[in-house]
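Hi everyone,

Forwarding the result from last night's run.
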Amino acid sequence: MSDITTINPTTGEEIKNYDYMSTDEVNKIVDASHNAFLEWRKVSHEERGRAIKSIGDKLMEYKEELSKLMTEERGKLYSQSLQELDLCKAICDYTAENGVASLADDVRDIEGMKKGIVSYQPIGIIYGMQPWNFPAYQVFRYTIANLMAGNSILLKHASNVTGSGLLIEKILHESDLPSDLFRTIIIDHDQSEALIGHDKVRGVTLTGSDSAGAIVGQQAAKAIKKAVLELGSNDAFIVLEDADIEVAVETCAQARLINNGETCVAAKRFIVVDSVYDEFRKRIVEKFEGTKAGDPMDDSSDIGPLARIDLREQLHDQVEKSVAKGATIAVGGTVPEGKGSFYPATILENVQKGQPAYDDELFGPVASLIRAKDEEDAMRIANDSRYGLGGAIFSKDEEKAIRLAREQFDTGMIYINGYGLANPALPFGGVKNSGYGREHGGFGVKEFVNIKGVHVF
């Protein structure tokens, strides 16, 4: 029997079987990765940028094949799989264009010296554990920045998207990048812990739940390894009384339901001030009622299935526990009959502290609708969370919204009067239980470098 069997969440049928690699095989890959790094570190920033540009170009040659596989393995809409690969291409292009300047030496005039030089040097193998929700984007987000920095990459992908992880490896191997600089490894948790402790692995990055982050963070700390953790969240989208309600409704619905609601930086709590609550509620409920769950390859579907049956069970359990503690269902909340791991677009009301819908991350198309007395109360509720990844503010007073975002919102990213998953030009990451470290925006290329101070007398 194989160690991993991938399942199509739309049909419940098996896709493919995979075996774990042996420890000897993994160690050989680590050695090859380290040797490739020793050569890659000598390559100029400009030449690295050209190789990264070629990765994006090669990705586009496989756009339809990889998009279909991502949809088959994890159930995301095919149209959104295509969009995800466009974002990966944008990451390659942005990094190739801006990475040279980001990594340039910083020469400083210092009294008593000829000069001081701050140099950003690569450190070695960066080991990434990535989730299934964005099978390509999560990989490209850490891989491209670290290749630009001069490091080499090992990827342990989520088991249910093993095929996507291997196809991504094939794409990179067909680009101008030396092959051993990127390897997808198929290993179990014990092998993963051993790899974190391997002396040739110099950095560790994980995207996942805060419980997984706590484990990996401890393992990395035990081995005295730098880690970047991008963990879960229950992002608050705040609708103030001067908001454009139509924009707020459209954006909140999109930001909750995109990627089947399985997004760390999705809109999870709609916090609406009392004066516009009823109007917002009426419109958002209508919007969710009109959402069609169906085959993710069908253009008429608004959402596909959740990635696995156990994830649907977990989500529904959170909904039921919230209801048992006083929440009410405005729309949805019923597990449909038939094949596949589908769950309807759902809105919970009367959501309060102590309920999973208030305290925890609901990873799927379920929104918590919360009434706030006023702007101050809305900000209080938004920050009343152990998480701090993203969030949004809707207000026609843009300056006020920017001020609230800068000074009061305790998260790493804030959207104002709109929503976008990520932008290569702006930092991505969170605070509190949402983790630490930043990717994108020129910050990711410096997470795993030796910031070296050279004193010239």
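The first helix runs from residue 23 to 40.

Cheers,
N.
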